[in-house]
Design goal:
about 20% helix; about 170 residues; alpha+beta; elongated; 8 strands
Length: about 170
């Protein structure tokens, strides 16, 4: 049996050394130091259109990325409650890149058909404002970690414009 040459042994030893050093470094860093979770906050919510069939709402979120690498927002899962009752839920699958150490406004458009409002309609009648709660999961595709979920839960009130007379 032939003995490995000295350069092959030396190269193998170097590879083992650097591999062990890399693993030790990664375990000592901890996930919190490598990746910091993005921050998401609701900026505003408004009724943008209203007719006899539906209401179009828009929720504006500020998304801050404290990391040194851009993060792609791959989607938003959401649930909307009005006056305490679940109104709708859905998914917005629109990709938005959030710049490294930057912030972006992300808008979530939602259309509510009045036929879907059966239970909530009684709570809206006669009011010019209504309480809402939006629960959302912002989904980021993070290199090496995969998909990271950032939950958001906000409450507020919406001003309802008056219905058209015809």
């Amino acid at each position: 049996m032939e003995q490995p040459t000295r350069p092959v042994v030396l190269m193998g030893a170097c590879l083992v050394f650097w591999g062990a050093l890399a693993l030790a470094g990664c375990s000592g860093l901890g996930l919190g130091r490598v990746f910091e979770q993005p921050r998401v906050a609701l900026q505003d919510a408004q009724v943008v259109a209203l007719d006899l069939e539906r209401a179009d709402l828009r929720f504006g979120f500020q998304v801050e990325n404290p990391n040194g690498v851009a993060l792609p927002l791959s989607g938003i899962r959401y649930e909307l409650l009005v006056n305490g009752g679940r109104l709708l839920e859905g998914t917005e699958d629109r990709r938005v890149d959030i710049a490294a150490r930057g912030a972006s406004r992300v808008e979530l458009p939602v259309s509510v058909r009045y036929t879907d409002l059966a239970d909530a309609w009684r709570s809206l009648r006669g009011r010019d404002r209504s309480g809402y709660e939006i629960r959302a999961d912002f989904l980021f595709d993070v290199p090496l970690l995969g998909q990271v979920r950032v939950p958001v839960k906000e409450q507020g009130s919406l001003a309802w414009p008056s219905l058209p007379s015809r």
